[in-house]
Amino acid sequence: MVVLTFRYGREDEEVMGLKFYTEAILDYRQVYPEPANQTTIEELTPLQETLMRKLGTEAYPLTLRVSPKAPPSVRLHPARPYIGSPLGVSYEIKVFITDKNNDKPHKRNMVRMSLKTVEYAPETTVGIIRDPMCRPRISIVKHFILSSGRLEIQAVLDKECYQQGEPLHVHVTLNNSTRTKTVQRLKVSVIQHVNVCMFTHGRFKNIIGTGDSSEGGAGSSAVTP
Fold first, then answer.
1. Arrestin C-terminal-like domain spans which residues (predicted)?
2. Domain-by-domain residue ranges, the chain?
3. CATH, domain 2-115, list 3.90.1150.10, 2.60.40.840, 3.40.50.1100, 3.40.630.30
4. What architecture is domain 126-223?
């Protein structure tokens, strides 16, 4: 079976039977013996056919499906150090042996495997192709009371949408027109904002990546969230 786990609280804070997670079974299949009411036969994939020829008749193929409406795997980074079960949405495949259908599976008779679902953003939005030249950018201007001139900072991204694990390049431009002020250090941070709609005040805001000019010198550095 495929189990979705949504953990919205730290595992080390669960006391007196209080649990900060919710589980949902997305798909359940009985492999052996085959159910009597099963009328349809699943078509084997090329990979399953190869494994059946290699493993022999003692292997039982199965197909599990995850609904396209299921949320993608999301990892929430807590602000304080944490080494417990990951916060966010995670998936797991569980295969177990029981004597009856309603028996509760035991860990000694169970095999578990993690599963990750990824949601890719489409390249087009409402039929309009995104212009690669229209890159996200923002600029701020800092004025000083006791000094003439101003300091202007502009940050530009390579593109609007990034896939999971893809390096995030930030191009920063400084325009210092003051005579007495000097920029000695530049730091770039990637902040994760998550709104959890299952409970009130479910907002997470944490730093998941940083880049410092003192580490890479005057050159540029890539931040991988």
1. 147-208
2. 2-115, 126-223
3. 2.60.40.840
4. Sandwich (2.60)
Q: What is the pLDDT of residue 132?
A: 58
Cβ 147 vs Cβ 135: under 8 Å:
no
Q: How far is CA 106 from CA 5, 7, 95, 109, 164, in A?
A: 18, 22, 11, 5, 35
The span from the CA of 192 to the CA of 190, in Å, is: 7
**Parts of the chain with a pLDDT under 70:** 38-39, 77-79, 121-133, 196-202, 214-225
Cβ pair 88, 7 in contact under 8 A: yes
Provide the whole-model pTM: 0.58
pLDDT attached to residue 224: 43
